Amino acid sequence: MRFFQGISIRLLLFNVLLVFLPAAGFLYLDVYERELLEAQERAMVQQGRHLAAALSEQGELDRELAGGLLDRLDRRTEARLRIVGQDGALLADSATLGPRREPAPAASSREASEYSDALPPEAREKLAYRIGAWLFKLPRRLSTWLGAPQPSSDPEGAYRPLEAREVRAALAGRYGAATRKSRGGQRSLTLYSAIPVRNQGQVVGAVVVSQSTFRILSALYEVRLGIFRVILASVAAAVVLSLLVSTTIARPLRQLRNEAAALLDRRGRLRGRFRGSRRGDEIGDLARALEELTRRLEAHLAFIESFASDVSHELKNPLAAVRGATELLAEVEDPADRQRFLAMVQKEVARMEGLLSGLREITEIDAQLESEKTRTVALDGLLREIVEGRCLRADNPLEIKLEAPSEPVLVQASPERLTQVFENLLDNAASFSPAGGTVEVRLTRENGTGLVLVDDRGPGIPETHLDRIFDRFFRYRPDESGSRNGHTGLGLSIVKAIVDGYGGSITARNRPEGGARFEVRLPALS
């Protein structure tokens, strides 16, 4: 069953099925054949009636009269005509006058016109027709195997009017008809129609019209052969096109499967990435999406590795300080020294607590930001609340100016997270600004985004540090002695994680007039 689950096989079967569904109409040629046979019978009856009408005006029938009348027809009829007397004797037969066309080589003189299909037609000798005929007859063979009744046919032999039921019906004054299998082992039949000849109300004889269905079947053979050739050509085209199309589908999918299998090593580590594709279809989109997925996964794994290394490094220094202080604390006796070493231990423990708290917060942002509930937030109102609250703080040494447009700028986010973003930016600006300095906060709407600028009057950011300013645990303070005074290097990293999580961006640069500028862009609601 796995063989039929492949895309190539299913595509091939589907296309071939589409070819054979219209080909089912090929079987309805039997309906067309019956209509032709009915038309042929009507024509035979019409000829017989005309001949019977001509004979009814001649009085009593005899061989001379019947033969002369058939002779005057000058063999212009395709059917075989017989005139039978009242006693059932054969008075005249158009076959004795010679065939209208040259008989087939195997036909005898008297039976040439009626059994001219003794040999198979040329079309039936071709291999394509034999295959088509076998498929065409398959339902009939199955019905025979299931016991369905088959149409009976009279045995082959010389035609004897008195033994023919259609002649007996005509001599009794009724229309008679019969169908018999043609001689020569062919599928064709011979249709018989018998029309009574009346003279003054009395039946004086009968006209028997017979004609083989060979010509109809020959035409049908050619039609079936043509249809089957079209079917074979369609199947071949379906197979070729299916192989071509499946190649463009199955081969790229197999390539993606192989790349996926080679993506991880035995230990589950990522050792490569999908190569993408330049295809413009859905498979190309899938390949590019997988390439982007592995790129982001690779970056995330690299971040996790570097993050673990950074955490280990950041915790190593306070732990070393705590260990050294505790060792000295056990050796000194002076109460002042013991108090100093104890304060050092408490300071380093508080520092580790701050680091762990920041790590927990940034980990929660990475893991839960997208699942947190959000609502529509007006940035202008939120910034006013933050600035007013900051100005009311007793320990605030700064003057904060806010510029906002008259129309509200709306974003979809968590107000608590946005408050955390701008609080951290103001804390960072305050840590670098001189006492009594000014921090400017400006809100504008630009290209479908809400743009918030936070400017300070500090020393600015060295060009070598601009690319690292948002790295975790990165710290830069011009006053090196206070570089570790309550700063973990995670504040700006938290800001970037939140802004990126909401589909925005944050950048840092130096102002020409001095100081640093942080630009926060968030997608604005229309």
Supply the key terms.
alpha+beta, five-stranded antiparallel sheet, disordered N terminus, 11 helices, 48% helix, 526 residues, five-stranded mixed sheet
Q: Number of DSSP strands? A: 12
Give the terminus-to-terminus CA distance.
Answer: 54 Å
Shape: rod-shaped
Order of helices and strands: HHHEEHHEEEHHHEHEEHEEHEE
Unreliable segments of 5+ consecutive residues: 1-5, 101-119, 142-157, 480-484
Largest sheet: 5 strands, antiparallel
Average residue-wise pLDDT? 77
Give the helix/strand class: alpha+beta
What Rg is obtained from the alpha carbons, in whole angstroms? Answer: 52 Å
**How large a portion of the residues is in β-strands, by DSSP E?**
15-25%
Strand order of the largest sheet: 2-1-5-4-3
Task: Work out the helicity level.
Answer: 40-55%
Number of contiguous helices: 11
What is the gist of this entry?
The protein is 48% helix and 15% strand.
Structural summary, described in words:
- The chain is an alpha+beta fold and 526 residues long.
- Helix content is 48%, strand content 15%.
- The protein has a 5-stranded antiparallel beta sheet, with helices on both faces. Strands 7-9-10-12-11 form a 5-stranded mixed beta sheet.
- Strand 4 and strand 5 form a beta hairpin.
- The longest helix is centred in the middle third of the chain and has 50 residues.
- The radius of gyration is 52 Å and the shape is rod-shaped.
